[in-house]
Protein 1
Amino acid sequence: MRKVYAILVIIMLICIGCQWQLKPNSDAAGKRQVSIQRYDRIESLYLTTGDYSALQQMNTNYPTQTRMLIEDMLQLGPVNAPGINTRFLHFFQDSTLQNMLYDVQQQYADLDDLNEEFTQAFEKLALLLPSVTVPEIYTQIGSFDQSIIVGNNMLGISLDKYLGRDYPFYQSHYTDEQRRLMVRSMIVPDAIAFYLLSLFPLPSARQVPANRVRHMGRIQWVVQQAVGRNVYDNAEVAAVEQLMKGNDSTDVEQLLRWGDLP
């Protein structure tokens, strides 16, 4: 019996030793897995059933997301105003919005592909822009308004704006060019572009318009490096590509500080 205990102890020590050995290798890899928070699911539950426990979860577990949604996106009033929860619920009782809530949950039942794409994109961004940190990323549902909302080191993705170019509501409310971009494959590029713009804002409106267009081209070029595919096809991005190829001394952060380069 003692021999059995001794063998078990040895096996446990070996396993613990393996864990200690593997952990540094995992850390050394520098991979931080992005996991999108599914705020949209709790929001959808409340807006389709009026479930009070879902509302409590929204206010308790996601207070900042709820405030930004109600106050900034939907502009229904202060989040603590009397009757605001009822106003929020009634706002989404329109049949078009109710159908949209269902369609979002069907199309985005699984986000594994987006989690992986965000993970890889932020790994590349860490090499390009070491000062940039990974924000808290979450999904939400708006009212066909803003696609991405950024604030408080949070990055909110409105899934209602990415239901596919042929989604019925889009057909009569958006142009062909707009609908071309309202697809799942644009979620990560859009999110990273808006996040970078929050860190490296456009020149003020008082500046020459060409400076703003040029800065947007630089943002888009960095996004393409992060996602590893061509997303934007325009002259500004092509110009940045040529600039970066011929100037090894220019780092990406310098590139995005629009006043530093000609």
Note: The first strand starts at residue 136 and ends at 140.
Protein 2
Amino acid sequence: MEEQKNSSRRQFIGNAAALGAIGVAGFSGILSSCSSGYKPVDLATFLDKAPDGEPLRAGVIGCGGRGTGAAINFLNAGKDLTIHALADVFQDRIDRCRTQLKEKKGVEVDDANCFTGFDAFKRLLEADVNYIILATPPYFRPEHFQACVEARKNVFMEKPVAVDPGGARMIIAASKQAEAAGLSVVTGTQRRHARDYTSVYNQVKAGAIGDIVSANVYWNMGKLWHRNPQPGWTEMEGMLRDWVNWTWLSGDHIVEQHIHNIDVANWFAGKHPQEAVGVGSRLRRVSGDCYDNFSVDFVYDDKVHVHSMCRQINDCENNVSELVRGTKGYTNCSSTVWDTDGTIKFEFPYPIDDEGKPDRRGIMSPYDQEHIDLITIIRNGGQIVEAEETANTNLTAIMGRQAAYTGKKVTWDELMASDMKLGPDKIEMGPVDMEYMVPSAGTAPIE
């Protein structure tokens, strides 16, 4: 397998000696893959807390559930960390975030550092902050990330990073600017910062399963959530509060949620697919214009096929997992590697609970770990920039979405040249000036 590398990762590896045992193996691409022989390699090692260093004052842009959760993960990561400023379109989200930060972490954010409105992110970037958490609906991510890079801020950026090809390309361009400016960026693809996943990844890169020949990735679950319009809400407010169900805001759930599993396929393969064919439909969703199921065949440049399936429908078979097969074995990516005959080659050593069973919850939460890793790199003068790699996975998910929406084969080259732009021309409270309908592949039968 040929693995893609970028300058930020090479720079990070070059600084590894100064960083101590942070688990450099967890950041993809430092072991040669497809070696002729295999013996288990060392587990990925990580710090439980970021080292002491310069105080970091975080600004949170997007104060909903994920933004508030990421703020708490940041505060869990070490010492001399504080949430200094908050920005959101809605005041009630800021109020709820402030309440949770005070109740759970004893952190209070001054009124003067709380900003509302569509331009709130600009005012936050002018505050005394040096670490930004981006957690708005994904539609806004490219503009916000570009502004953070121009303001010379280190960034934790939630996935997905865009909803259309133009937005993803904007992320890639800003990522290169961040690299040149010496900034660090970690994204919310937290499996890459999970101790079990990265340990299995290391085994695969050391040749445990040989050459990858196929993979299956799944996120099948029940209905997520929705918000019904309320009296007094404008059409824009209704969409923003129900954002996960609107493609222009979320990218649809193959992009917004299933990106995690697709990212594992790209990460382990060390590349992205070249084309996709897929199907999908809307059967049960009660708001918005998204599908509630997708099934996509991704084809990589060596004709390796990855089957991707995701669903958000109640009372169906659930499955959130990955399976990668190779010429010499297979793995679930999260804990275990098997030989072709089913013999276990490697198993992650989880702590044992009181009943004598492996306890997956006994290891560091990857949601905390990704902030520990980013803060450690910042404080030790290293650099990591994950944005471009995540944008490529984001584009992979968009390619699958468009293949299902259209019923056509969609290629990577077509995607990179696409001028598709989702969303209204103007972002303002009031009516939403755009047409939207549930996509339908193919044509009706000829009568």
Note: The longest helix spans residues 387-406.
Protein 3
Amino acid sequence: MEALLSSRDAFVDELWSGVVQRGAVLIAATFPRCYIDPNRAETDIDQDLLAEPWPGELRPEKYSRAGMGLIRRLALPGVPMYQRKLSVAEVQHRIDAYYRPYRAALKAQADAACRRFGAVWHVDCHSMKSRGNEMNTDSGQARPDVVVSDRLGSSADPAFTRWVSEELRRLGLSVQVNHPYQGGDLLNAISAPAQRRHSIQIELNRALYMDERTISRSPGFAALKSKLDAFADGLADYVRGQL
């Protein structure tokens, strides 16, 4: 159970809840990403997880090779998620009942924003361990407070990515851009910068706001939420200025 909880984005929706009062839409997944990860491509499946051949095309990416694809193979380094292989029917159920409805809800909101305002700014909110492990490219390294990602400049106007990074630094947070994360496939599903559809990913260091061992809020929770509320104020002003 401890290994499963280590992949949980605990309290992230609470930390970002202030955006709703500032006019944004907040969509929170009600299923754990270790069950199925809506941030991955639908074809990012490791065939070795399956008890039978997949009926369609599979395009496993670096995440599947590391054990963290659409369906996780590893909970932690050397700790398998399952003691058996999964049937095609099980995986298809997860896609149909969880992955696609989440993706559809997000797309519907983004499309509605574009119809109303002619633009959309999407923030994909995540959490990260305070230190990388053997499944990550930064294994053993301490991480910054925040990682901002834009698929190496392809999912958002670089000016927006730069503004986000500078605003978070202004609030006293250490920030890295596109390292060790470059942004998941979910950004591709929303973004088209040339059409004013901008999508970035923000990873929050869990050590800022929780005890990583017990998965419980720490005294830093309120302070970080206050900073994110201030960031949301700035983001609302930024969007109004762009519109």
Note: The CA atoms of residues 172 and 227 lie 9 Å apart.
